[in-house]
């Protein structure tokens, strides 16, 4: 069984009767349920409670190792030269020593090799971070901090790292550092000579540096200065400090000698006026002060997420610092506390990146942010103005069309900026595919609201499941008193509920959350007499909703969800067509009895060889079963030959796991045509859950979950079916639907024909984390940290954790970036888990699980949910998400490093030899267009990456961000453009308007090369695409008779089977290569749009060309028609 995250293999199955380790036993409160089945990888029991492993993550540590002599020769310097104590970094590793000096540190102020020490996994590792001492709420705060100075690490070529103390001169005209061997006048950079400030590791020195991998992307930044665009490459001790320097330096560049005037004018700004107005509305008598109670309530009204105790404490601290008695609050105090509590530094740093004013965003600034960062298309000033009017709290801001820091915060925290793509809140997938092509939200023992041994049964179980979008519910029906069938778990002490009342509830709520078909899984144990009562109730109550149409014998697949809208399907046993009586014998549906039989046999026999219990079924009930006839599973090869498309097999968890591990390819192919239902082992008497991903990856459609049991597994199920409008049906990946496709559910490598994606997630901050519900600790203080988990096929399963932020659950800053390779995006999920590192009893704070396909890129808030799925009021994570394409084979490339691949090192998709001459000849003809397609894609991607690097950005950036970054360099001293873009041409060209430095010429040359690669792809993609599709269709002509052709060629059984597998592989590769080329062309067209929009936004377009649109390509790539797509061109 695949290992994924913590406890991803499912909750532990007990080895003997007795309670299984469940969500509240093995791994606490949704923090991962015990690794049963295949063994979870990350849970550790500490005094009977679960504890997460750290995984050895040190991503957020900005420290680098330095030699002992450097520490003495270059002490950290505090303000005004006061020496600071240096604390060894936990991630720095061993200090290099010189063997000739008997173990003494070598005499050098540099280290040439950063040695990475492999960290042992421990039960928990905390990377501590105390709340920031410097609360940043304005540009003046940044400037003041820079004047005080801070220790930064200066990175030079050949892996040389220097500890230096950097500070801004009091006159704000130069940046200095000390100590230095240089003359004090040379150890400085004039502010007016600074061209730009880059964030991240985006200069040649960072990219070529041997210890770059040890440097956090979020702590690195570079100052580009001088006519030759030299770089001063620096690493801060934290992302907070880096943000202060970047923000402050950019402010100085923008305003130069007018900085002081701007800082003074910004003290009496729009925000201060608005807060003053809020104060005056309370101070109706114009006394100049208000009560503490009123002040606290006003701030809470303006920021509901703040705790009353926290606001009161801040006022008391302020009064104590002034030796002030009493509880009155003045206007100045009110404004000061509001600024301290309601300004989120991370959002302020973001605002100033896009603000032309540095204190607010106007409509053009907001447009730039929405286009470049949030990926919003077709934005205009009217839309920006609507956003400002909706979220800006001050009337002045609304009237002027300005979004203040408070309005910007409101916008970023609104549902408009949640991480979940709103397009997936409605049905957005093709609902006309066969029913077997969908995952179906399914419930097990729906009538239970606790465990399945002695817990109560209640109709609320059905109401809850149906309201959550469940499309398959279970009814375990037995004879009841007064000739009324009842529902309960047989052979247990669970309560009984009347069958008729359940049917009433189903009739009322069947289509409450979804209009698509509902499947009733009847486990029938009733006598003939009470079976007829069941039929009467269902016909009378459900009426026309019941789907009883006989299956079409000429079809090969089930009807679609679209065709079955509003219908209720009965899944149960059915009498054979040749049964002429009013009743007949069928096999028993008792899943518990079946499981007990097989457990006794230890699954050494085939299921059809086990003793089969039979019972009597009445014809009336049999006739209600149409396209979901329950049958016993036979081995795969038999099922492929004899099973009808309307027949459904149920697999207990243990048997399904066996097939998933031993026959993953057969299981996937079986589920392309037939519905498969997987139910939990009856040994889970505590109603713990299995991992649905273990069976989704094999294509199993109906994976029945215990909805009454919260935890990791239900988080995955709820998160997965949140997509596609929460309608209960999710279209399976194409590779699981196509008749001919090569896919192994247990692959730990990339998937043939599928383009891997790189997911970049930055955990920026958290807001208003509650104390864990089950915590026994006193007080409200938490020490939060965050896990990011990827769940999917084994190749995708991964997890990373942030550092711990001590004693700050209100506004912890994490500022850590992670990267994950996603090999099968259509089946991947991302789970954010927030935990308390200093817990007693319970560490779980909140979580959020989202399908990869539903992620919105850009700056997003993640609304956290409780263990039981309720939204935690005001609790969220603030993150940045970027998704890029993988380039080439091998391991994923490091962020910030060049990902260009030369043609000689390029890896081309390979086709396999079948040793069937006629078929191999067709595939041989496909090799040239595959190489052409790869060259077109790689040349385009490499050229784009080269341009991004010259713009000073990482591969995560888009071309709009590149154009925005480079545009200031294209402006001359008089603000006239040195370079313009001619947008009247289909492929915009850069035209020099004056003599420019060599570094700008290089950018123009690289841009031209990029544009040539974009042009080559657009103009040649269609022809190459058609060649690949033609080869695919030609090969598919052999598919139906491949066995007989191979036999004629003399292939024996084993080689023939290998030839069939190779044929499937080749078809999958061909379709994948065609799709990749299609996506590459779409990406190229999007790149051209971004260049066009950015040039207009920055004013770099050649006069008279701003309204011109690039000419459309000759024709667009045509997708394979739906039928051909499903059947691979057959």
From TrEMBL:
EC number(s) reported in the record: 3.1.4.11
Matches recorded under Pfam families: C2, EF-hand_like, PH_12, PI-PLC-X, PI-PLC-Y
Residues of the PI-PLC Y-box domain: 621-737
Domain (C2) ranges: 737-866
Compositionally biased region (Basic and acidic residues): 1109-1130
Catalytic activity, as annotated: a 1,2-diacyl-sn-glycero-3-phospho-(1D-myo-inositol-4,5-bisphosphate) + H2O = 1D-myo-inositol 1,4,5-trisphosphate + a 1,2-diacyl-sn-glycerol + H(+)
UniProt cross-references to PROSITE patterns, sorted A to Z: C2 (PS50004), PH_DOMAIN (PS50003), PIPLC_X_DOMAIN (PS50007), PIPLC_Y_DOMAIN (PS50008)
Keywords: Cytoplasm, Hydrolase, Lipid degradation, Lipid metabolism, Phosphoprotein, Transducer
Compartments, as annotated in UniProt: Cytoplasm
Molecular function terms, GO-annotated: GABA receptor binding; inositol 1,4,5 trisphosphate binding; phosphatidylinositol-4,5-bisphosphate phospholipase C activity
Region (Disordered): 1-133, 1103-1130
Ranges of Gly residues composition bias in the record: 31-45
GO biological process, one term: phosphatidylinositol-mediated signaling
Residue span(s) of domain PH: 144-254
Listed SMART domains: C2, PH, PLCXc, PLCYc
Annotated Gene Ontology cellular component terms: cytoplasm
Keyword Nucleotide-binding among UniProt keywords: no
Chain intervals with Low complexity compositional bias: 18-30
Protein name (record): Phosphoinositide phospholipase C
Organism: Cricetulus griseus (Chinese hamster)
